[in-house]
Amino acid sequence: MSHHIVQVQDLNHTYPDGTNAVKGISFRIHHGESVAVVGANGAGKSTLLLHLNGYLTPQSGTVRIGDFPLTKETVKDIRKTVGMIFQDSDDQLFMPTVYDDVAFGPLNLGLPPEEVEQRVQDALARTNVQHLRDRPPYKLSGGEKRAVAIATVLAMSPDILVMDEPTSNLDPKARRTLIELLAGFHHTKIIATHDLDMVLDLCERTIVIKDGQVTADGPTLSIFQDVELLAASHLEKPLRLQACPICSGKGILPPKSASHQ
Question: At the fourth CATH level, which superfamily is domain 6-259?
């Protein structure tokens, strides 16, 4: 495969209710890049991501993963290369135990039992959830479910990870653990998210989408310092790039009673 390049050219998608969610989007992502896709709710991020793994196929325009154009005939091959992690982990966890969920994909590839076992062990180890192997997924915390959902994808040995809001609904500790986990995946990552501070940690490139169209594509730091671009896309600077209100003299003043003590 041609270095697992992801190429989207003039992609369009309209839902049955007439919503034109994606309007002529084009970009090219090379092997090893970590790319964020950001924009307001309803901008078209999730619709775009669903095309990268074949859950949606192009109505017009093209999506290519390496040497393969995305079609109904090639989708099985593409899903071996592109692993999709949904925003809601419950959409990926449906088996009686964590082991069963992680083994599901490799078993469906027809792999021998010993290789399935090895893939499950490796995926659980990489996500630090070996201790959850025999637990039912519905009894896991949000962070545990997210880690197991990632393990189900890693067990398929993908070269590209596509993630929709991976840090949503996670507490701060689970969020930091997830960021550290994703930082250790050195293949291609494409992440749709509102968590712009996470983008600073993981993605050197950011694509901004507004109303189904790409409005910017470039180095993450440059885009996040463009206040007018962010405002036009209904986004704000990551907290780490915002001026400290205390240092800038805009902090909350102490109560009058305290100022006279």
Answer: P-loop containing nucleotide triphosphate hydrolases (3.40.50.300)
